[in-house]
Amino acid sequence: MTKPQLTIYLAAPRGFCAGVDRAIKIVEMAIEKWGAPVYVRHEIVHNKFVVDSLRDKGAVFVEELHECPDDRPVIFSAHGVPKSVPAAAAKREMVFVDATCPLVSKVHIEAERHYENGLQMIMIGHAGHPETLGTMGQLPEGEVLLVETVDDVANVDVRDPSKLAFVTQTTLSVDDTIDIVAALRDRFPAIVGPHKEDICYATTNRQEAVKAIAPDCDALLVVGAPNSSNSKRLVEVAAKNGCNYAQLVQRATEIDWRALGEIRSLGITAGASAPEVLVNEVINAFRERFDVTVEMVETAKENVEFKVPRVLRVPA
Ligand code: SF4
């Protein structure tokens, strides 16, 4: 039986970013240096496949520091942690390594600088996301106010409208954030902030690549985890830019063949924490049912690399 034809538009850039790559390498190096088990506070990156592979090598994933024993090393995830976490680890004289993405650390530094200048902070982010908790936790309680939507901006209760600054989560929707920043600048003309926002290069590039292919796709799949902020944003971006069916899948087994129906074109991308092996798994699942032609659509070249420390050092 002849298979129906399908053109797959493969978005580029997609998948692993420099911060994810670095965080995974740090866990692997820690296991090599100190032997198993090495504890990791929170999923090192939001991807089950990655977490399971590291678990097989000897990593133990926990949500909070109190779940770790004093005498084993602990790694803090790429999303960043509130200041209280390394402080508690130091108090317990634990060995710990911070795998926070340097672009998240940059936002932490920004927030601290504004605080030292006497400004109250507004963070644009998603409530409960570990990066938001980590960034808000850089400053004392009450110093960072969270807004998630344009409506929140109208209701936020600030101490002094003339002494305000804002930062953002790094993995937000670029377009939604533009609107929220505009609402902040409109309500608080004196607010200080980054030129645009703090959304990282990887989030921006993956969203741009999806925008380029979405109008030509009958459907678009984002390979990524349901708790991955940047992956969820890619689904939204596809839907907002003309693709009628956009879905997040962790693995090929999650593809909803019935919902896809008789598609002739399919977009595929992957969130910043999804490895390429899973993208290939999804493409191969389509090859079994369709006569597939893959066209790569590259909208940006990435050459960002974050240094992985050659030797893991224990903080003094
Ligand atoms: S998505 Fe951006 S901020 Fe997050 S780890 Fe990757 S590079 Fe860093």
TrEMBL record:
Residue stretches in coiled coil: none
Note accompanying the cofactor annotation: Binds 1 [4Fe-4S] cluster per subunit.
Residues binding [4Fe-4S] cluster: C17, C101, C200
Entry protein name: 4-hydroxy-3-methylbut-2-enyl diphosphate reductase
Key words of the record: 4Fe-4S, Iron, Iron-sulfur, Isoprene biosynthesis, Metal-binding, Oxidoreductase
One GO term (biological process): dimethylallyl diphosphate biosynthetic process
CDD domains: lytB_ispH
Family statement: Belongs to the IspH family.
List of residues binding (2E)-4-hydroxy-3-methylbut-2-enyl diphosphate: H46, H79, H129, T170, S228, S229, N230, S273
Functional description taken from the UniProt entry: Catalyzes the conversion of 1-hydroxy-2-methyl-2-(E)-butenyl 4-diphosphate (HMBPP) into a mixture of isopentenyl diphosphate (IPP) and dimethylallyl diphosphate (DMAPP). Acts in the terminal step of the DOXP/MEP pathway for isoprenoid precursor biosynthesis.
Highest classification ranks of the organism: Bacteria, Pseudomonadati, Pseudomonadota, Alphaproteobacteria, Rhodobacterales
GO molecular function, a single term: 4 iron, 4 sulfur cluster binding
Transmembrane segment boundaries: none
Cofactor: [4Fe-4S] cluster
Gene3D superfamilies per UniProt: 3.40.50.11270, 4-hydroxy-3-methylbut-2-enyl diphosphate reductase, catalytic domain (3.40.1010.20)
Pathway membership, UniProt: Isoprenoid biosynthesis; isopentenyl diphosphate biosynthesis via DXP pathway; isopentenyl diphosphate from 1-deoxy-D-xylulose 5-phosphate: step 6/6; Isoprenoid biosynthesis; dimethylallyl diphosphate biosynthesis; dimethylallyl diphosphate from (2E)-4-hydroxy-3-methylbutenyl diphosphate: step 1/1
Species in which this protein is naturally found: Donghicola eburneus
Enzyme Commission no: 1.17.7.4
Residues involved in dimethylallyl diphosphate binding: H46, H79, H129, S228, S229, N230, S273
Keyword flag 4Fe-4S: yes
Alphabetical list of Pfam families matching this protein: LYTB
Source superkingdom: Bacteria
Catalyzed reactions: isopentenyl diphosphate + 2 oxidized [2Fe-2S]-[ferredoxin] + H2O = (2E)-4-hydroxy-3-methylbut-2-enyl diphosphate + 2 reduced [2Fe-2S]-[ferredoxin] + 2 H(+); dimethylallyl diphosphate + 2 oxidized [2Fe-2S]-[ferredoxin] + H2O = (2E)-4-hydroxy-3-methylbut-2-enyl diphosphate + 2 reduced [2Fe-2S]-[ferredoxin] + 2 H(+)
UniProt xrefs under HAMAP family: IspH (MF_00191)
Keyword 4Fe-4S: yes
